[in-house]
Amino acid sequence: MLDVRRSSLKPTLNGEPGTLERSRNTMSIITLLTDFGTGAEYAGLMKGVILSINPSAVIVDITHQIDCQDIAQAAFTISSSYEYFPDGTVHLVVVDPGVGSERSLLALEMKNQIFIAPDNGVLTLLFNEGNISALIRITNSKYFLASVSRTFHGRDIIAPVGAHLSGGLDLRKLGAEIDRRDAVHLDDLYARISENGELVGKIIGIDDFGNLITNIDFKKLSEEYPSGQEKKIQIKIGSHAITGLSETYSSVQPKTPMALVGSRGFLEIAVNKGNAALILNTEKGDNVRVLGHRK
After folding, report:
1. pLDDT computed for residue 231 by the predictor
2. Tens of pLDDT along 127-155?
3. Neighbours of 230 (CB within 10 A)
4. Which of 33, 60, 205, 290 is 20 to 30 A from residue 233's alpha carbon, by CA?
5. How is residue 60 annotated by DSSP?
6. Residue 107 lies in a domain
7. Domain boundary among 153, 182, 211
C-alpha cells in the first residue's frame, strides 16, 4: 500500500514508468467530482498523483460535497456540469461505495470529453444522451500506481489514468471496448407520469441555501405541458402547493415558497430569503408532483 506519510515517496506506475503522449506544455483540464468532503486528505492526494504524472494539468474541483455514497446525485451533477468545460477535458468521478469489490472502472468518451468513473450507474444520464465515441472497461494496470489500495481507487487508479489521458493517452489502451448496455444503469432517475396523470419526480439534492433540487427537468415540463401553462400548473410537495413557475427567486415576497427552473435546468423549490427544506419540512427523496392540463 502506498505510504502517504513519507514525503520523499513519489507515486510510480505499475511496471515501466509511463510518459505523456503529448507535450507537457499543453494545457489540459481535469475535473474532480467526489463525495470526499473537504475535511480529509483524499482530494488532495488525488491532485498530487495527477500533478506527479502531468505537472501541466489544470485541476478543477466541481464539488467534493456529493452526499456520501449518493450515486444518483453524482449522476445528475456530472450530467449538468460537463458541458461548461472545453473539449478535451477529463472528468474524474469518485462516488464509489463498491470500491474494492468486483465492480469495474469505466472510461467514457463522448462529445469530445472523457469521463472516468466506477461502473455503478453514475454515468447513466451520460449514456442516455448518446453520442458515445468509446466506452472502455479499464484493465491495463500499466497506468495504475504500482501499489493499489483496496479502499482508494480514486488515488491509485482513477487519478493516474486521468493524468495520462489528459496528456494524450489513447483511451483504447486502457482496456477492451464494451457496449453501453453492458454497463450498470440506475433505475428511477427520471420523473414519470403517474396513473392519474400527474408528473411525479423527487428531490435529488438540497443546496446550502435550502433550495430543493428535483429530477424534473425543463425538457420534461415542456413536453408535458403546453406553452402558457407556466403560471397555472401546481407543484405539490407534502401538504404544500405552489401555483405557477416563477422566473427568479425574488419574484415572490420574502419567506414565500416558490418554484422555478434553476440554473441546472431542473425544477427547484425555494423560499425567497428563506430555507425551503426547513420551512417546508422536506428532505432528499421526498416526492414532488406537478398537476395541470397536459398536452
Report:
1. 83
2. 999 899 999 999 999 999 999 999 999 99
3. 18
4. 205
5. E
6. yes
7. 182
Q: How far is CA 22 from CA 28, 124, 138, 282, in A?
A: 10, 31, 21, 50
Q: Which of 53, 46, 47 is nearest to 24 (CA)?
A: 53
Is the separation of the CB atoms in 2 and 156 below 8 Å? yes
CB 112 within 8 A of CB 134: no
**Confidence at residue 3, expressed as pLDDT on a 0 to 100 scale:** 33
**Whether pLDDT at 2 is above 70:** no
d(CA 92, CA 221): 31
Q: What one-character-per-residue DSSP string does 82-111 give?
A: GGGS-TT-EEEEE--TTTTSS--EEEEEET
Dihedral, CA of residue 48, residue 54, residue 55 and residue 61, to nearest 10? -60
Say yes or no: 199 and 270 in one domain: yes
Strands 113-118 and 199-206, by their bridges, are unpaired
Q: How many domains does the chain have?
A: 2
Query: Cα–Cα–Cα angle for 16, 21, 24, nearest 5°?
Result: 105
